[in-house]
Write a structure and sequence with these properties.
Chain A: Pfam families: ABC_tran (PF00005), oligo_HPY (PF08352). The complex is a heterodimer. Chain A is an alpha/beta fold. Helices cover 30% and strands 22% of the residues of chain A. Classes of the chains: A alpha/beta, B mainly alpha. The structure holds adenosine-5'-diphosphate (ADP) and magnesium ion.
Chain lengths: 338, 333
Amino acid sequence: MPEPILSVQDLHTHFLTDNKEVPAVDGVSIELHKGEVVGIVGESGCGKSVTSLSIMQLVPNPPGKIVKGEIKFKGKNLTYATEKQMRKIRGNEISMIFQEPMTSLDPLFTIGNQLIEAIRIHQKVSKKDAKNYSIELLNLVGIPRASEVVDEFPHQLSGGMRQRVMIAMAMSCDPEVLIADEPTTALDVTIQAQILDLMRNLNKEKQTSILLITHDLGVVAEMCDRVVVMYSGKVVEEGSVREILKDPKHPYTKGLIRSLPNIRTTEQKLYSIPGTVMRPSLDQVGCRFAPRCEHSFDSCWEENPKLLKQESGRQVRCFLYDEEKSERGVTSNDKSYT
Amino acid sequence: MLAYTSRRLLMLVPVLFGMTVITFSIIHLIPGNPAQTILGETATEEAISNLEETMGLNRNYFIQYTAYVGDLLQGDLGTSLRTKASITTEIGPRLAATIELTFFAMIFAVFIGINAGIISAWKQNSWFDFLAMVFALVGVSMPVFWLALMEQWLFAQELGWLPAYGRQESRDPIDPITHFYVIDSILHMDMKQLITSLKHLVLPSIALGTIPMAIIARMTRSSMLEVMKSDYVRTIKAKGSGQFLVIYKHALKNSIIPVLTVIGLQVGVLLGGAILTETIFSWPGIGRYVYEAINYRDYPVIQSGILVIAFLFVIINLIVDLLYAFIDPRIKY
Ligand SMILES: Nc1ncnc2c1ncn2[C@@H]1O[C@H](COP(=O)(O)OP(=O)(O)O)[C@@H](O)[C@H]1O
Ligand SMILES: [Mg+2]
């Protein structure tokens, strides 16, 4: 297999809140190859956004800090990059779209102004050419009346339109990697499908690699090649989308899939995983999902489970699949509880 | 923008009406007979009825008010009881003196305040930030008269660099045109007078501008810090922009709105409340004019002074509102 275009190895990003160090991202590793769409899923608060901000070296500091790990982009280690080197990469080679289209554009400047700015930071073009290119980009992302919208202000556009503008902005310098942090969470379902379509086209036509962050497995099923499941700052499972949806291993992933609304079942009540996400802490021992897990046993409370590599690159962080520990739990071949 | 401006102008009408009602009522709200109050305990019956006659106090309120507003509309503020001169002519130069001082005090306050606020926010928790904020805290809590006296002692008396009193050299008075001496000396193309006028402005401007400067610096800093945490600033950073563009283009414009509010309020405070500074620096402004009128119970002057200050306040507010709309496209025109 060729070198991944972006690889995150053992990333630890901590936040200092109320004089307590919170390991928001606690040893995460992710690989993204050229032209690939990788999903990161997990409940809110599990560290998805912090992971993506870490890649961009945009973790708000203070209170946040990357304390350990390696982020390699095309062979360069971004954790050692200077601010100046990062500026050349941000918006140019790695672009990012955020969850909040309503607040992600500066309310006091026109759409055109903000697009032109994005273009002219990285490309030596005249204002006029940049404006024409902006209109072209707005057309490309399916904004009607692009030549008028370019002179309008963000508050004159709907959430969906603003997210299109964000995508246009992200596309403006033909990035090799697009990080989309819950790009459709704040949008209506119909708009959501259109935005996903846009990203799929970008991926197909320009071979842009996409790191798609979401808490919606439906979106993952539709868009991604591979998926990384995160829980409380750690990767708990990883594999191809087909494998994971068909045969989830980690109890948390199973819960996520069970809680997907399914029109084919007659079940009246939606399933939801009992309990809530525990705030990660440095002095916690044991599996972080144990308090919510119906299969937890002694080891789960006493030791941190390792990420077990299974056949075909699948990975799972659970003692149930650990030959030595699982005699009291369920073994990997036992599918009775799915 | 035009529609918005005219709407805002139209809204001034009831405000101005209310203002005239209040200033008109001042004289009638004093307990007892106004003419008696003005003239004092020892006044004769004849003197009282004479004054009532000249001020029209014996007519009914409605007629009095109509006459008052009618005069105002013609630019006639009445006659001073003490000097028997037209208040309109008397107040002009004093207004110019106050506006000139306020202008320079605010230039000082805004220029230093905003820049200190920006740098403090940019280098949050640095030694600059720390020093600037300590300085700002001292600035807001320092009594103006004390600062004024210290300035006079150090820069006028000890060092002799700057004049301590007045607007001009009494031996070499300026020939007034607009009564803004800086403008007048430029109109006369008199470099020496220009320098003299500016020198006279330095100490009172600093005394008057220090509190607004401190308030503006703190407001700018906190407003900038708020904006720097916003989603759109994150977007701009994610585009690959440098700090300078983030701060001086986006963050500054977004954080200026609450700062503008503060600036507007401070201008109003300076215009109306500079009596102490004007007294210490012998600055012949409107604050002192009203203050002296109060001592002499010169009610027509008190009324006019309050009206003029209130009017300036309203105008400043209008300008601030128009600036909001100019800066923020979300404000409905
Ligand atoms: N600005 C911040 N200040 C303090 N803690 C933060 C901040 N941003 C994130 N965190 C911590 O990181 C954790 C993960 O947040 P985040 O990555 O935003 O989750 P999500 O998976 O929903 O994107 C949060 O639970 C919080 O404890
Ligand atoms: Mg998030």
